[in-house]
Amino acid sequence: MSVSTGSEIRLRKLTPNCGVEVLGVDLNHLSNSEMEAVRQAYVDHGVIFFRDQKLTPEEHIAFARRWGDIDINKFFPANQQYPEIAEVRKEKTQKTNIGGGWHTDHSYDQEPAMGSILLARELPLEGGDTLFANMYAAYDALSDGLKKTLDGMCAVHSNAAAFGAGGYYKNSDQAGGFKGESLVGEAVHPVVVMHPLSGRKALYVNPAFTVCFEGWTMEESQPLLQHLYKHAARPEFTCRFQWRDGSIAFWDNRATWHYAANDYHGERRLLHRITIGGEALN
Ligand code: SIN
User: Fold this and answer.
1) Which residue segments constitute the domains of the chain, with CATH numbers given?
2) Closest ligand 1 atom to 97 CA
3) How close is the Cα of 214 to the center of ligand 1, in Å?
4) Nearest Cα to 274, choosing from 130, 86, 78?
5) pLDDT one-digit tens code per residue, 41-69
């Protein structure tokens, strides 16, 4: 079922709790009222999808700039001509993909990125879907007791295990493309954030970058973190996006997780990602 937004734009949910396709829109010719409808869909749903778009790299950058400043990733392989564009690439010969586990981008920054706009450039014949999980829904479904405990807590997020010299990518067949291993660092954020756009509470820990609760050891933190990860990845909070030529996914890093499925060995997959700057979280 699709829902009218008051303009020509319609929204079609992927699942009850996660993700909408925005229909009837050409991102190269967005009027102000359409932009407002798209913005509202993004705020309400945390991840929105578009089909059949024809954006050049310049148009991709121009669309991203309508949302804020571009946050260039320190670690990712960048497009040679357009440094604003990170290349999420897996060659036919590679086994490791980028983003192949639940995470949210840039949670290791003190001002985590607002969102990421990912656009398909080259796709495998089948596979290579991206899964998303809604962290509003995950938070809402926690017990009142656990919500009360988590509401006052903070957690430490680090990128060393992913991007550091001894980290995951540097020890994989993606190593050649990654850079900046000396730039690793960490940040502290509330475990439950008040989302700056929606004003709603969202769970803000993730398996890739959260290392411990502030003031707790890693060993003490693990059982509760693992409980939260298992809870947040429950199928009823997730959706699965199947890419086609011209598809775009645009997610809010403060409200969702994502996971790139790695089920297309022997085929090439290339997506262009632009990440938009955010703000400190409360
Ligand atoms: C990412 O984690 O940003 C990449 C997601 C994907 O390739 O589907």
Assistant:
1) 2-276 (3.60.130.10)
2) 7
3) 28
4) 86
5) 999 999 999 999 999 999 999 999 999 99
